[in-house]
C-alpha cells in the first residue's frame, strides 16, 4: 500500500490543473479589444493550430513506428511490456500540454495588448497569468501521469494476489510469482523510468520542429520585408508576419514547455528509481525513498502557485521594477519550498542530506540564470564589447560574439560541477555511492521544483511579444505599444535566463538518468538470461542463461580507460556538433523557401504594398510548417538511432561514454550557442538605442549580421541540444534490454 | 645493456640531422636573386628572428619558474628528480628546432622565388627541400633526445653497480639499492615520459604566440592596407606587410613544428612506458617492448628521407600534378614503412598485432587528411555551398560555414574511434587490456612515423607563400608570380591536410599519454608513502605510509559514474571552449594595436604612399610580437594550472575526466574550427575566381567576412587546441606525484 502522505502528489497535480483552468477562464473574460485586434489574433491562432495539427500528425506516425518496434522488442523479452503503452501516455500528455499552452498563449496576446491599453500592471497580469497556465499545466499533467502510473503499478499490477500468483498478459510475464516487496519497488520504478521516452520523443519534435519553424519564419520575414521591401517589423502587408508571430508561440511556448515537461518527469522518475535501489532499505523506508522526489515536486507545485500570486507591479514601473516583480515570485517560491522541506526534514520525512541536495539544485538554477543575464544583457561589459566591435564591421562582431559565448561557458559548467558534487556530498555520497547519486537526482528535482512559476515567466515572453505585434498591426496608440514594449523587453530577459534554466535542468536530469541507467542495466542483466527465452534461443545466447551474472560491475568495464567508453565519449561530443550543424542547415533551407514565397506574393498579389490586396498569411504559415516538419526528421532519427547503434556495437561502456560525452560537450556547446545568440541580439538592440552610431550606422549593419547569425544559435540549435542530451539518455534507458542482450554475444 | 638493433635509433636521428644539413647547404647555394629580393628577405628574416628572440626570452622566464617549482616538488619527494633537467632538454631541443626551421624558411623564400623564375620544378624543389629541413630537424632532434636519455638512464644511472649500491644525489634517491631489472625499466620509461613537458610548454608558447602573432599581423595589414588605403596585398608601402610575411613563418613553421615535435616525442615515450608495464614481460622481451616504438620511429625517418627524394614534377604541371608529386612522396614513405615493418614482424622483432596497430594509425592519418580536403576544398559541395550562401550576405555565409565545420567533425571522430579500437584490437586488447593500450600507442607512433616528410609538405606552404610575397614586392615578371602562386595554392591545400594530421596525431598521442598516466599514478602510489618522507611528515600523511596501497584500481574509483570524474569531464569540455575564447579575444586585441600603428605610420611618415618615404617595418613586427607575447601568457597559465588544481581538488578521477573531456570536446571543436576556417577561406577564393559575381560583388564582400572570421578559427584557436589537449595531459603526467600525495589526504 502507498503511504498516506503520498496522496498529496495526485492532489497537488490536480490543484495545479484546476488553478490553470481558473487562470485560463479569468483570462478569457478579458476583452480581446477592437475587431482588428481580434482578427489578427485569430490569424495567429489559426496558424499556430495549423502548425500543431500538422506536427502532431508527424509525431503520431513516428510514435506508431516506435510503438511497434518497442512491442516487438517486448515480445522478444528485451523490452519492458509496459513501455509501449507508457510511451504513449508520456507523449500524449506532453502533446496535450503543448496544445493547451499554445491555445492559451494565442488567446492571451490580444487580451494582453488590450490590458496594456488600460495599465501596465493589467498587461503584466494578463500576460503572466496566461504564462502561468502553461507552467501549471506542465507540472500538473507531468505529476498526474507519474502518480497515476505509480498507483496503477503498485496497487493494481503488483497487488498482493498477483505477487503471490504471478501475472501474465499476452504471454508476457508482468509479475513473477513470489516477487518480494523490495524487488517489486525496483521493478516498478525502473519500469516507470522508461515512460519518459514518450515525453522525450514528443519534446524532440516540439523543440527541433518549433525551433526550425520560428527561425525560418523570422528570417524569411526579415530578409524580404525589412531588408528588401523596407517595411517595418510586424507590418500587416508582409505575408510572413503572421507566421513570425506564430513562430514565437511554436518555439518558445510549445517547444520550451515540452522540453521542460521532459526534464520534470525525467528527474522525478530517475530519482525514484535511484531511491528504490538504495542498498539496505526495505519496506516503509524504501517506499519513502521512492515517493520523496514526488512529494518534493508536489510541494513545489503548491508553493509555485503562491509565488504566481505574488507577481504584481505598480503603474510607473521601470524595467528594473518589472524584473523585480518576477524575481519576487520565483525567489519567493524557492524560499518557501526550502522552508517547507526544512519542516519535512525536521519530521524525518526526508533526510537533512536530501534537503542539502535539493538546495544545491535550487541554488545552481539561480546562479546559472543570473550568469546568463550577465553575459547577455546590454548592461554589462561582454555585450557592450560586442557592440563596440561592431564599429569595425561584421567579422569582428562575429568573432567577439563567439568568444563571449565560449568564455561564458565557465560559469554554468563550474556551477553544475559544484552543484553535482555538493548534492552528492550532502546526501552522503562520499560514504555511500548510491546515496550520493540519489542526492544528484534530488538536485535536479530541486531545480525543477519551481517549474510552475519559472515556466510562467518563460511563456510570458512570447505572449508579450505577440501582444506587441498585435498592437503594431492594429495601430493602437503609441503609449500602448510602449507598455507592450516594456513587457516584451522583460520577456527577452526572462527568455535568456529561462534558456539557462532549461539547459541547467537538462544537464542535471541527464545526470540523474545516467545514474539510473545503471539500475536499468543491472535489472536487465538479471532478466535477459531469465526472461528472454525466445530471444536467447533465436540468438543462440541461451547457453549464457546460467552464466550467473550478478552485477554489471562484474561484467562491464566502465572505467574511463576502456577504449569502447572513450570511443563513446568521442562520438557523444561529435553528436552535439553534428546535431547542431543539421538544425542550422535546416533553418537555412526552410528560410530560403519562405523568402521565395514572400517574394512571390509581393510580385503576384496586386495592391499588396498599398494595403489594398490581402497577403496570403496561411500560405506562409504552411510553408514554414512544411519546412520544419521535413527538416526535423533526419536529426530526430539520428538522435534516436545513434544510442541504439552504439549500444549494439560498443556495448554498455560505449553507451555510457556516448551519454557522458554528449552531456558534457552538448551542455557546453548549448551554453555557448545560447549566450552568443543572446549577446548578439542585445548588442544590436544596444546599438539601436543610439550607441556607436545608432540605427542605420555601419555598426548597426554589423550588429544585424550578428543578430541574424545568433538567431538559429539561440532559438534552434542551442535549445535543441537540451533535447539531444536527454533523449539519447532516455533512448539508452529504454533500450537497455537490447544493449544487454547484444552485449551477451 | 641495450639491445644492438636499438642503435639504429640514434643513428637514424643523426642521419636525419645530416640530411637536414645537406638540404640546408644545397638551398643556401642557390642565388637569392636581385638586391631588392635580398633586401626584402632580410627584413622578414630580421623580423622573424626578432620575434623568436623575444619569445624565447619569455619562454626562458617561464621555464625558470617551472624548473624551480619542479625542483621543490622533487625535493619534497613528489616529483621525479630528473624532471627539472629533462624539462630543460625537451624545451631546448624544441626551441632549437623552431630556430633552425625558421632560419631555413626565411633563407629559402627569396631563393624559391628566384628558383621559380627559372622553372616551376626548380621552385618546388627549393621550397620543398627547405621544408624538409624543418621536418628532418624535428624528427632528428626529437629522436636524438629520446635516445640520449634512454642510454644515459639505462647504462649510466641504472648501471649494474648503482643497482647494487643505490645512487643518491643532493639527498634525492635516484636508484634504490636492489631494484630489479623489471622495475628498472618501468622507472626509466615513466621518468622519460615526463620529459615531454618541456617540449609541451615550449610548443604552447610557439603555437599560441605564433597563432596570435600571425593573425594580428594579417588582420592588421589587411584592414588598413587593403580596405582603408586600397593598396594590394604584399604591397611594400604597407608597414605591416613584412610583419604579415614574418607571421607565416612564426605561425606555420615554428608553431606547427613545435606542435608536432611534442606529439612525436610524446607518442614514442608514452608507448615505451606502456611497453615497459606490459604484464608478464621481463628481460629481453621487456626491452624489446620498450625500444619497439623507437625503432618504428627510426625506420620512419629513414624512409621519409627516401620519400623526400621522390618528390619532383614536370614543368607544365597542373595543380593536380603538383599535389600528386607530394602524394607520391608521403604515400611512398607510408608504403615503404609498412613493408619494412612487415619484415620486422616476420623476424619476430615486433608482433603482427603491433604491425596492425601501426597501420591503423597510418591509415587514420590519411583518412583524416583527405576528409579535411573534402570539407575545405572548393572542388567539393560543402565549400561551394558556402560560396552560394554568400550571395545572401554575410550572416548566411557565417551560419553555413559554422554548420559545415560542425558537420565535418563526424569523419575525423569516426576515424579516430575506429582507429583506436582497431589498434586496441589488433594488439590483443580484447584479451589483454595492457596490450591493447600499448597498441593504441603504436597507432600514434605509426601516424607520426612519416612526420619527416609530412612536416616537409607543411613547412613548404609558408615558404611558397613568402616567395610569392617576395616576388610581388620585388616586382618580378608575372610568370614568376604565376608559378609562386601555383606553389602557394599547393601550400594552402597541404596546410589544410596538415592541420588534420596535426590534430589527429595530437588526439592519438593524448590517448597514449592518458593510458601512460595510469602507469605514472601506479608508480607514485607505491612511491609517495615510501619516498616522500619530508612531504609526508610536513603534511601529516606519514600515517598512511604503511597503508599498503598496492594498485590504483583498489584506490581510485575511475568508473564513469564517479561524480569527480564526471565533474572533470565537464571542466575538460569547458576548458576547450574557454581556451578558444581567450585566443580569439587575444587576436582581436593584438590586431587592434596593429591597426592603430599602421594608421599612425600612414599619417606621420611623409611620402609613404608615394613610395618615397620608407615605412617602419620593424616597429610593426615589434607591435605584433609584443601583442602576441602579452596575450599568450594568460591562456598558457590556465592550461598549466587547471590540471594541477583539478588534481588537487578532484583527485585522480577528476584529472582523468578532465583529460578525457578536454580530449574529446577539444578534438571535435578543433576540427570544426579548422574546417570552418579552411572552407571560408576557399569559398572566398572560389568567388574571386569569378563565381557568384566574382571580386567586388556582394557575395565577395560576404566571403571576405567569412574569411576574416575564419582566420583566428583556423590559424589561432583551432591549432592551439592541439597543444591544450596534449599539454593538459603532460602536466597531469608530470604532476602525478603531487596528485597522488594530495589524494592521500
UniProtKB/TrEMBL annotation, chains A, B:
<keyword id="KW-1278">Translocase</keyword>
<dbReference type="GO" id="GO:0004427">
    <property type="term" value="F:inorganic diphosphate phosphatase activity"/>
</dbReference>
<comment type="subunit">
    <text>Homodimer.</text>
</comment>
<feature type="transmembrane region" description="Helical">
    <location>
        <begin position="290"/>
        <end position="311"/>
    </location>
</feature>
<keyword id="KW-0812">Transmembrane</keyword>
<feature type="transmembrane region" description="Helical">
    <location>
        <begin position="500"/>
        <end position="518"/>
    </location>
</feature>
<keyword id="KW-0472">Membrane</keyword>
<feature type="transmembrane region" description="Helical">
    <location>
        <begin position="6"/>
        <end position="24"/>
    </location>
</feature>
<comment type="similarity">
    <text>Belongs to the H(+)-translocating pyrophosphatase (TC 3.A.10) family. K(+)-stimulated subfamily.</text>
</comment>
<feature type="transmembrane region" description="Helical">
    <location>
        <begin position="723"/>
        <end position="744"/>
    </location>
</feature>
<feature type="transmembrane region" description="Helical">
    <location>
        <begin position="82"/>
        <end position="102"/>
    </location>
</feature>
<keyword id="KW-0915">Sodium</keyword>
<dbReference type="InterPro" id="IPR004131">
    <property type="entry name" value="PPase-energised_H-pump"/>
</dbReference>
<dbReference type="GO" id="GO:0006814">
    <property type="term" value="P:sodium ion transport"/>
</dbReference>
<dbReference type="GO" id="GO:0030955">
    <property type="term" value="F:potassium ion binding"/>
</dbReference>
<feature type="transmembrane region" description="Helical">
    <location>
        <begin position="560"/>
        <end position="584"/>
    </location>
</feature>
<feature type="transmembrane region" description="Helical">
    <location>
        <begin position="353"/>
        <end position="376"/>
    </location>
</feature>
<keyword id="KW-0406">Ion transport</keyword>
<keyword id="KW-0813">Transport</keyword>
<protein>
    <recommendedName>
        <fullName>Putative K(+)-stimulated pyrophosphate-energized sodium pump</fullName>
        <ecNumber>7.2.3.1</ecNumber>
    </recommendedName>
</protein>
<feature type="transmembrane region" description="Helical">
    <location>
        <begin position="132"/>
        <end position="152"/>
    </location>
</feature>
<feature type="transmembrane region" description="Helical">
    <location>
        <begin position="633"/>
        <end position="659"/>
    </location>
</feature>
<dbReference type="Pfam" id="PF03030">
    <property type="entry name" value="H_PPase"/>
</dbReference>
<dbReference type="GO" id="GO:0009678">
    <property type="term" value="F:diphosphate hydrolysis-driven proton transmembrane transporter activity"/>
</dbReference>
<feature type="transmembrane region" description="Helical">
    <location>
        <begin position="58"/>
        <end position="76"/>
    </location>
</feature>
<feature type="transmembrane region" description="Helical">
    <location>
        <begin position="397"/>
        <end position="424"/>
    </location>
</feature>
<keyword id="KW-0739">Sodium transport</keyword>
<comment type="function">
    <text>Sodium pump that utilizes the energy of pyrophosphate hydrolysis as the driving force for Na(+) movement across the membrane.</text>
</comment>
<feature type="transmembrane region" description="Helical">
    <location>
        <begin position="436"/>
        <end position="456"/>
    </location>
</feature>
<keyword id="KW-1133">Transmembrane helix</keyword>
<dbReference type="GO" id="GO:0000287">
    <property type="term" value="F:magnesium ion binding"/>
</dbReference>
<feature type="transmembrane region" description="Helical">
    <location>
        <begin position="323"/>
        <end position="347"/>
    </location>
</feature>
<feature type="site" description="Determinant of potassium dependence">
    <location>
        <position position="495"/>
    </location>
</feature>
<keyword id="KW-0630">Potassium</keyword>
<dbReference type="GO" id="GO:0012505">
    <property type="term" value="C:endomembrane system"/>
</dbReference>
<dbReference type="GO" id="GO:0005886">
    <property type="term" value="C:plasma membrane"/>
</dbReference>
<keyword id="KW-0460">Magnesium</keyword>
<keyword id="KW-1003">Cell membrane</keyword>
Amino acid at each position: 500500500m502507498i503511504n498516506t502522505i503520498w496522496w498529496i502528489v495526485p492532489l497537488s497535480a490536480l490543484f495545479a490543473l484546476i488553478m490553470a483552468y481558473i487562470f485560463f477562464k479569468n483570462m478569457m473574460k478579458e476583452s480581446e479589444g477592437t475587431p482588428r485586434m481580434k482578427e489578427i489574433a485569430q490569424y495567429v491562432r489559426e496558424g499556430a493550430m495549423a502548425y500543431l495539427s500538422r506536427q502532431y500528425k508527424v509525431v503520431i506516425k513516428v510514435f506508431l513506428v516506435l510503438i511497434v518496434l518497442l512491442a516487438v522488442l517486448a515480445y522478444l523479452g528485451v523490452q519492458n511490456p509496459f513501455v509501449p503503452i507508457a510511451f504513449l501516455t508520456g507523449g500524449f500528455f506532453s502533446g496535450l500540454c503543448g496544445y493547451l499552452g499554445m491555445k492559451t498563449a494565442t488567446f492571451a496576446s490580444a487580451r494582453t495588448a488590450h490590458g496594456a491599453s488600460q495599465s501596465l500592471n493589467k498587461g503584466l497580469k494578463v500576460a503572466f497569468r496566461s504564462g502561468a497556465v502553461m507552467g501549471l499545466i506542465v507540472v500538473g499533467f507531468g505529476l498526474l501521469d507519474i502518480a497515476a502510473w505509480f498507483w496503477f503499478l503498485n496497487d493494481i499490477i503488483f497487488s498482493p494476489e498477483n505477487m503471490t500468483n504471478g501475472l501474465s498478459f499476452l504471454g508476457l510475464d508482468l509479475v513473477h510469482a513470489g516477487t518480494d516487496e523490495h524487488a517489486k519497488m525496483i521493478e516498478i520504478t525502473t519500469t516507470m523510468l522508461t515512460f519518459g521516452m514518450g515525453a522525450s520523443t514528443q519534446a524532440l519534435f516540439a523543440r527541433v520542429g518549433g525551433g526550425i519553424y520560428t527561425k525560418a519564419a523570422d528570417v524569411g520575414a526579415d530578409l524580404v520585408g525589412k531588408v528588401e521591401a523596407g517595411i517595418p517589423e510586424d507590418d500587416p502587408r508582409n505575408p510572413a508576419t503572421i507566421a513570425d508571430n506564430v513562430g514565437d508561440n511554436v518555439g518558445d511556448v510549445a517547444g520550451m514547455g515540452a522540453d521542460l515537461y521532459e526534464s520534470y518527469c525525467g528527474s522525478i522518475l530517475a530519482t525514484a528509481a535511484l531511491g528504490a535501489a538504495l542498498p539496505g532499505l526495505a519496506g516503509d523506508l524504501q517506499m519513502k525513498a521512492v515517493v520523496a522526489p514526488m512529494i518534493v515536486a508536489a510541494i513545489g507545485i503548491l508553493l509555485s502557485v503562491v509565488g504566481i500570486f505574488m507577481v504584481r507591479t505598480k503603474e510607473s514601473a521601470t524595467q528594473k521594477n518589472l524584473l523585480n516583480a518576477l524575481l519576487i515570485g520565483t525567489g519567493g517560491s524557492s524560499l518557501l519550498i526550502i522552508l517547507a522541506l526544512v519542516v519535512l526534514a525536521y519530521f524525518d520525512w526526508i533526510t537533512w542530506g536530501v534537503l542539502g541536495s535539493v538546495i544545491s539544485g535550487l541554488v545552481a538554477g539561480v546562479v546559472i540564470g543570473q550568469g546568463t543575464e550577465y553575459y547577455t544583457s546590454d548592461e554589462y561589459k561582454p555585450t557592450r564589447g560586442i557592440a563596440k566591435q561592431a564599429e569595425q564591421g561584421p567579422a569582428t562582431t562575429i568573432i567577439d560574439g563567439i568568444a563571449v559565448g565560449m568564455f561564458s561557458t565557465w560559469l554554468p559548467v563550474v556551477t553544475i560541477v559544484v552543484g553535482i558534487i555538493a548534492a552528492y556530498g550532502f546526501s552522503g555520497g562520499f560514504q555511500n555511492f548510491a546515496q550520493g547519486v540519489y542526492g544528484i537526482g534530488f538536485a535536479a528535482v530541486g531545480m525543477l521544483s519551481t517549474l510552475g512559476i519559472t515556466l510562467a515567466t518563460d511563456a510570458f515572453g512570447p505572449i508579450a511579444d505577440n501582444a506587441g505585434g498585435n498592437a503594431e498591426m492594429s495601430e493602437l496608440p503609441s503609449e500602448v505599444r510602449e507598455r507592450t514594449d516594456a513587457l516584451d523587453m522583460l520577456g527577452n530577459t526572462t527568455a535568456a535566463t529561462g534558456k539557462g534554466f532549461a539547459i541547467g535542468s537538462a544537464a542535471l536530469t541527464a545526470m540523474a538518468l545516467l545514474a539510473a541507467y545503471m539500475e536499468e542495466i543491472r535489472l536487465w542483466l538479471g532478466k535477459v538470461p531469465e526472461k528472454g527465452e525466445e530471444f536467447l534461443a533465436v540468438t543462440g545466447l541461451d547457453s549464457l542463461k546460467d552464466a550467473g551474472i550478478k552485477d554489471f560491475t562484474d561484467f562491464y568495464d566502465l572505467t574511463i580507460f576502456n577504449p569502447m567508453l572513450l570511443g563513446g565519449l568521442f562520438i557523444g561530443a561529435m553528436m552535439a556538433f553534428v546535431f547542431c550543424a543539421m538544425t542550422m542547415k535546416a533553418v537555412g533551407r526552410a528560410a530560403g523557401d519562405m523568402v521565395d514565397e514572400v517574394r512571390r506574393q509581393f510580385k503576384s498579389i496586386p495592391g499588396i504594398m498599398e494595403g489594398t490586396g490581402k497577403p496570403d498569411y496561411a500560405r506562409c504559415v504552411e510553408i514554414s510548417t512544411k519546412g520544419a516538419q521535413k527538416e526535423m526528421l533526419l536529426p530526430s532519427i539520428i538522435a534516436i538511432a545513434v544510442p541504439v547503434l552504439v549500444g549494439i556495437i560498443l556495448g554498455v561502456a560505449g553507451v555510457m561514454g556516448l551519454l557522458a560525452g554528449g552531456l558534457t560537450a552538448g551542455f557546453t556547446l548549448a551554453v555557448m550557442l545560447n549566450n552568443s545568440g543572446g549577446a548578439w541580439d542585445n548588442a544590436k538592440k544596444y546599438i539601436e538605442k543610439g550607441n556607436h552610431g545608432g540605427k542605420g550606422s555601419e555598426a548597426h549593419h554589423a550588429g544585424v549580421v550578428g543578430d541574424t547569425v545568433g538567431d538559429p544559435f539561440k532559438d534552434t540549435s542551442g535549445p535543441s541540444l537540451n533535447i539531444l542530451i536527454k533523449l539519447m539518455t532516455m533512448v539508452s534507458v529504454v533500450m537497455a534490454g537490447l544493449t544487454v542482450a547484444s552485449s551477451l554475444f
